[in-house]
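In response to reviewer comment 3 from the previous cycle, which asked for concrete evidence that the modeling workflow produces usable outputs, we include below a single protein chain processed end to end. The sequence was submitted unchanged, and the resulting structure tokens are shown without manual editing.
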Amino acid sequence: MDIELSDGDCFEIFRQIPVRPQVIMTTAYDSYALKAFEAGSIDYLLKPIGEEALRRAVGRCRERVSAGAAQPGIDVQALLAAVAGSTQKRYKERFLVYVGEQIIPVQADEIAAFFSEDKANYLLTMTGERYLIEFSLDALDAELDPGRFFRISRGAIVARSTVRSVSRHFSGRLRLELQPTPPFEPTVSRARVEDFLKWLE
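The workflow returned the following structure tokens.
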């Protein structure tokens, strides 16, 4: 097992599930040796790996297996659950807004909406403050938790917790009553109505 993986180190696997097969750890650094043996590795090979070192490590594996030290079988369900958890999309939970020389962190659950106005993009807080942001609404679509935010039109994204009521509007659109009241017309475009109602439910 290589210690340094593309999404972290292999020790996270050992923390989340029991690893029963014999493990030989490999790395280009010698700083992980103690952690490797604490995790149960039977050997620790530095890259580039020499043939003799590899032969010796595999020999140790065979000795332990023949002595009954190996516990065959992997808890596949636990492994899949761990992998699913580590690959689950992580959405943006905090935004930094700039007011003059001041930088203000705003938590996602403090945000009522994002909207465009005069070719600029803004964040509206639950307490009614509005801040200029550098993100486009298209970029925000990929960063926001879809369970919490919905893009009602090309120019606005709203938080579920702000929706107080919904009424039919002309041309098949929906008119929203939001709290706090936004500085834009909160209407759901006709193409998004069905998805919005499913999301709201």
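Residues 51-66 form the longest helix (16 residues). We consider this sufficient to address the reviewer's concern, and the full set will be provided in the supplementary archive.
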